[in-house]
Amino acid sequence: MADNALKEILIQQVELALDSIRPYLKTDGGDVKVLDITEERVVVLELMGACGSCPMSAMTFKGGIEQAIMRAVPEIRGIQAVNLTPMDV
């Protein structure tokens, strides 16, 4: 991102959005970490603890994490998890 100040503001906003769902993640032994926000305003996350290996992590990501960020920080254009466990079909 060209403007580091804007990137820092967006990271703070994303962290606040994640703080709203962290208690639920931590209840199940998980958490989420912001790794980066790209030039394209895509948030890159790492699912940690139990969330990193949970077979339901894709649902948690889409229904919880992604929704919380997109609702709270409309400037974000996308969200990507580097270690998302694919759902068994």
From TrEMBL:
<dbReference type="GO" id="GO:0051536">
    <property type="term" value="F:iron-sulfur cluster binding"/>
</dbReference>
<dbReference type="Pfam" id="PF01106">
    <property type="entry name" value="NifU"/>
</dbReference>
<dbReference type="GO" id="GO:0016226">
    <property type="term" value="P:iron-sulfur cluster assembly"/>
</dbReference>
<dbReference type="InterPro" id="IPR034904">
    <property type="entry name" value="FSCA_dom_sf"/>
</dbReference>
<protein>
    <submittedName>
        <fullName>NifU family protein</fullName>
    </submittedName>
</protein>
<dbReference type="GO" id="GO:0005506">
    <property type="term" value="F:iron ion binding"/>
</dbReference>
<feature type="domain" description="NIF system FeS cluster assembly NifU C-terminal">
    <location>
        <begin position="14"/>
        <end position="79"/>
    </location>
</feature>
<dbReference type="InterPro" id="IPR001075">
    <property type="entry name" value="NIF_FeS_clus_asmbl_NifU_C"/>
</dbReference>
